[in-house]
């Protein structure tokens, strides 16, 4: 082939050519006009010699494994009209010299690892029709020179870290049809003038940014727009009070997770689908709006899954706007009469009621004490293992499918997953296979294919989403339930994957370089998981149990915000909730959490145990700890837990992830999380803390390990009212400095040799932060007693 000096076209697309591009390509094939090597499994760098192909008009090297920098020499190809280097592993920045490629009509550098900023000289490419820089790590401001690209039709800057306001003058871009700015860090308000001249615009994506202020009115009425996504910003304002015009094409709008408010207007009739969830709209929903709108988590009257009255009233009162209180009458007490008799009653009545209340409390306490003493004698209490909610009690017709996202056809699912290609397969899950999908509008989603032999096994999960709404769960975007043999659920795509894959991530193509999450991010993840479980355990009635809390079920978005997934096994907690609290208070024995078949029962304490393993995995970096329950992992747990002590911070350095670079203050936070994890792993369910107290501890980790002044400690022993740590009935105890037990020898248990490496910002004895000679201190989380830790794998 090296002798074909007159070769003009070389197209080997999708033909496997493993290896690198020879350097002689740019020397001996000087007559090449088209070089198409997309999807050829090529690796290595792009040869600089390609810059010698002066006749080259099309260069397509996309969808390979190319590494290294984008060669500056490519800027010498003045006749080049198409340059596609997308879906590779290229690094570095976009060469500023690309401004010399004046005949370029398509520039696609998407889905690489490029960084830096957009060169302002790109604005000289006046023939450019497609500019795609999405899926990189580019940052800084977007240069105003992009507004000079008068021929531009498609602009995609999504999934980067661009910031600042959208300061482009878009009026010149009169031919643009698709503009995608989603998943960046843009902020500020948007002016309607930006879009006034864009009469051809069809697709606008502004989602996952920090835009604020009033939503431009013009975006409601542009007749050519058929898809707009402005979700997860801070836009505010009301729907325009304008009538719908029949000439406008039906559109799909996503305005969820913003701060819109007010009543629904006639403009709603324009949309085939509009997502207004997680806003503050109010009033009554018309039948027309009900057909096309997704409306949960608002302030609508008579609708299910809405915000609380308190949340809605607070939002409207802060803005001094009227709120109808969900249509309920506001009861106003009559003005009091200030006469002498009423004043005497005001004094006497509270005294009498207070005395009666005190007597009632004493009687109730005595009755509970007698009842629990009798319960103590019952040794064989039957335990029932509750599985997922039976499908026969959730008829499909009872589910409001419109509130569960958009309905997709089977053909749309096939196209989105490329007919369930192996390249799109993310993983095989217990409830179904997960595939990466790309919708027709370009939005990435995750599609779960359910082929369960149990009929309608997907209904419990749909039932969960129809009744529960919280930002800490993976959003359900849609479904496809028309295929008899297979069902499909469509979820929002989480850019950072799950915790098991994000805790350590590959930083180079050879797979040898691993970079771990920093401590601040790990603590943020721990708090997020605790918030999700706290909602299930303490804000749902009856309390819900997740039953599958592990690293692989904790998903992370582009900002490492937690979205808890694997919700197919969530069900209500069994047993008497109040009895469980009394048992916790009085430290009575509790039955095993395993049923006759050995499966975990539906108890919140089981979730707490699983959360403890996740926290310990974040502290130690021991991958697979929260997922595995084999003998090796149990043995590791038995060896590791003794290194977690409230009395000795330095012991912890033997098991802390050695990749963490932390100073003295951060080490105390790591220490606090380890103590919380150990308390969660107590083999006695009744002695594990409630999730709401775990959340408080993780939000204020230094309070777990730092000493209090003697006066405040004495005060806490007298009254714990108002203290969140007082809720840890069985998980705190009074300790003295002489109560320090012996500890095992310091033997590192991590995957790397040696203990943790951390920077000492302050020279200080670790015992000085938790001990004071002759002083007693109140510890929030205690160490389980030795007899409690005999079988830490009980769950």
TrEMBL record:
<dbReference type="InterPro" id="IPR032675">
    <property type="entry name" value="LRR_dom_sf"/>
</dbReference>
<keyword id="KW-0812">Transmembrane</keyword>
<keyword id="KW-1133">Transmembrane helix</keyword>
<feature type="transmembrane region" description="Helical">
    <location>
        <begin position="347"/>
        <end position="372"/>
    </location>
</feature>
<dbReference type="InterPro" id="IPR011009">
    <property type="entry name" value="Kinase-like_dom_sf"/>
</dbReference>
<dbReference type="GO" id="GO:0005524">
    <property type="term" value="F:ATP binding"/>
</dbReference>
<dbReference type="InterPro" id="IPR000719">
    <property type="entry name" value="Prot_kinase_dom"/>
</dbReference>
<keyword id="KW-0325">Glycoprotein</keyword>
<protein>
    <submittedName>
        <fullName>LRR receptor-like serine/threonine-protein kinase</fullName>
    </submittedName>
</protein>
<dbReference type="GO" id="GO:0033612">
    <property type="term" value="F:receptor serine/threonine kinase binding"/>
</dbReference>
<keyword id="KW-0808">Transferase</keyword>
<dbReference type="GO" id="GO:0005886">
    <property type="term" value="C:plasma membrane"/>
</dbReference>
<keyword id="KW-1003">Cell membrane</keyword>
<dbReference type="InterPro" id="IPR050647">
    <property type="entry name" value="Plant_LRR-RLKs"/>
</dbReference>
<dbReference type="Pfam" id="PF23598">
    <property type="entry name" value="LRR_14"/>
</dbReference>
<keyword id="KW-0675">Receptor</keyword>
<keyword id="KW-0677">Repeat</keyword>
<dbReference type="Pfam" id="PF07714">
    <property type="entry name" value="PK_Tyr_Ser-Thr"/>
</dbReference>
<dbReference type="InterPro" id="IPR055414">
    <property type="entry name" value="LRR_R13L4/SHOC2-like"/>
</dbReference>
<dbReference type="InterPro" id="IPR001245">
    <property type="entry name" value="Ser-Thr/Tyr_kinase_cat_dom"/>
</dbReference>
<keyword id="KW-0732">Signal</keyword>
<keyword id="KW-0433">Leucine-rich repeat</keyword>
<dbReference type="GO" id="GO:0004674">
    <property type="term" value="F:protein serine/threonine kinase activity"/>
</dbReference>
<dbReference type="InterPro" id="IPR003591">
    <property type="entry name" value="Leu-rich_rpt_typical-subtyp"/>
</dbReference>
<keyword id="KW-0418">Kinase</keyword>
<keyword id="KW-0067">ATP-binding</keyword>
<keyword id="KW-0547">Nucleotide-binding</keyword>
<keyword id="KW-0472">Membrane</keyword>
<feature type="domain" description="Protein kinase">
    <location>
        <begin position="420"/>
        <end position="703"/>
    </location>
</feature>
């Amino acid at each position: 082939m090296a002798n074909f000096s007159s070769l003009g076209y070389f197209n080997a697309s999708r033909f496997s050519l493993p290896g690198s591009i020879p350097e002689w390509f740019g020397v001996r094939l000087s007559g090449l006009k088209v070089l198409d090597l997309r999807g050829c499994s090529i690796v290595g760098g792009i040869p600089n010699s390609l810059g010698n192909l002066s006749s080259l008009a099309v260069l397509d090297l996309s969808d390979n494994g190319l590494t290294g920098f984008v060669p500056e020499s490519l800027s010498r190809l003045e006749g080049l009209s198409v340059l596609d280097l997308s879906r590779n592993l290229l690094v570095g920045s976009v060469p500023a010299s690309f401004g010399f490629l004046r005949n370029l009509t398509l520039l696609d550098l998407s889905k690489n690892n490029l960084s830096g900023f957009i060169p302002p000289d790109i604005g000289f490419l006046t023939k450019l029709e497609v500019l795609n820089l999405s899926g990189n790590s580019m940052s800084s401001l977007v240069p105003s020179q992009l507004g000079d690209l008068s021929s531009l039709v498609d602009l995609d800057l999504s999934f980067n870290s661009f910031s600042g306001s959208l300061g482009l003058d878009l009026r010149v871009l009169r031919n643009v049809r698709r503009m995608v700015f989603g998943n960046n860090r843009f902020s500020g308000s948007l002016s309607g003038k930006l879009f006034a001249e864009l009469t051809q615009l069809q697709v606008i994506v502004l989602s996952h940014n920090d835009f604020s202020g009033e939503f431009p009115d013009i975006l409601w009425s542009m007749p050519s727009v058929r898809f707009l996504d402005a979700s997860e910003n801070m836009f505010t304002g009301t729907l325009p009070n304008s009538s719908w015009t029949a000439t406008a094409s039906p559109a799909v709008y996503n305005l969820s997770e913003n701060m819109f408010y007010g009543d629904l207007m006639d403009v709603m009739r324009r949309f085939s689908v509009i997502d207004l969830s997680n806003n503050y709209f109010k009033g009554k929903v018309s039948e027309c709006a009900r057909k096309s709108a997704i409306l949960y988590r608002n302030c609508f009257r008579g609708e299910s899954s809405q915000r609380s009255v308190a949340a809605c009233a607070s939002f409207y009162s802060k803005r001094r706007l009227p709120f109808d209180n969900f249509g309920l009458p506001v009861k106003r007490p009559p003005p009091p009469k200030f006469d002498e008799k009423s004043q005497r009653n005001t004094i006497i009545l509270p005294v009498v009621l207070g005395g009666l209340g005190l007597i009632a409390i004493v009687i109730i306490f005595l009755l509970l004490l007698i009842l629990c003493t009798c319960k103590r004698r019952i040794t064989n209490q039957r335990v029932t293992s509750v599985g997922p909610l039976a499908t026969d009690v959730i008829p499909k017709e009872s589910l409001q499918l419109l509130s569960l996202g958009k309905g997709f056809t089977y053909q749309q699912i096939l196209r989105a997953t490329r007919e369930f290609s192996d390249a799109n397969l993310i993983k095989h899950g217990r409830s179904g296979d997960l595939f990466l999908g790309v919708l027709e509008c370009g939005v990435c989603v995750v599609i779960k294919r359910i082929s369960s032999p149990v009929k309608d096994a997907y209904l419990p999960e749909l039932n969960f989403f129809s009744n529960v709404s919280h930002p800490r769960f993976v959003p359900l975007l849609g479904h496809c339930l028309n295929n008899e043999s297979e069902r499909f659920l469509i979820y929002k795509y989480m850019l950072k994957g799950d915790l098991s894959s994000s805790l350590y991530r590959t930083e180079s193509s050879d797979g040898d370089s691993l970079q771990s999450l920093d401590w601040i991010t790990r603590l943020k993840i721990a708090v997020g998981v605790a918030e999700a479980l706290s909602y299930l355990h303490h804000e749902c009635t009856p309390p819900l149990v997740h039953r599958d809390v592990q690293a692989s079920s904790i998903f992370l978005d582009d900002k490492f915000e937690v979205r808890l997934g694997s919700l197919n096994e969530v069900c209500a907690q069994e047993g008497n909730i109040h009895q469980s609290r009394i048992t916790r208070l009085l430290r009575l024995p509790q039955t095993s959490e395993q049923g006759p078949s050995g499966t975990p029962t539906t108890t919140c304490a089981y979730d707490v145990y699983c959360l403890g393993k996740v926290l310990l995995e974040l502290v130690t970096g021991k991958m697979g700890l929260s997922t595995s329950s084999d003998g090796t992992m149990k043995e590791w747990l038995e060896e590791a837990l003794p290194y977690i002590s409230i009395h000795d911070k330095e012991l912890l350095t033997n098991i802390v992830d050695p990749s963490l670079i932390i100073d003295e203050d951060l080490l105390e936070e790591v220490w606090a999380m380890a103590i919380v994890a150990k308390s969660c792993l107590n083999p006695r369910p009744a002695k594990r803390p409630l999730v709401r107290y775990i959340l408080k501890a993780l939000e204020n980790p230094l309070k777990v390990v730092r000493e209090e002044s003697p006066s405040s400690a004495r005060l806490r022993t007298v009254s714990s009212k108002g203290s969140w740590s007082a809720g840890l009935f069985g998980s705190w105890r009074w300790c003295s400095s002489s109560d320090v037990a012996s500890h095992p020898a310091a033997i590192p248990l991590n995957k790397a040799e040696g203990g943790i490496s951390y920077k000492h910002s302050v020279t200080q004895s670790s015992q000085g932060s938790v001990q004071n000679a002759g002083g007693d201190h109140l510890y929030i989380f205690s160490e389980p007693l030795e007899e409690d830790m005999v079988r830490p794998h009980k769950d």
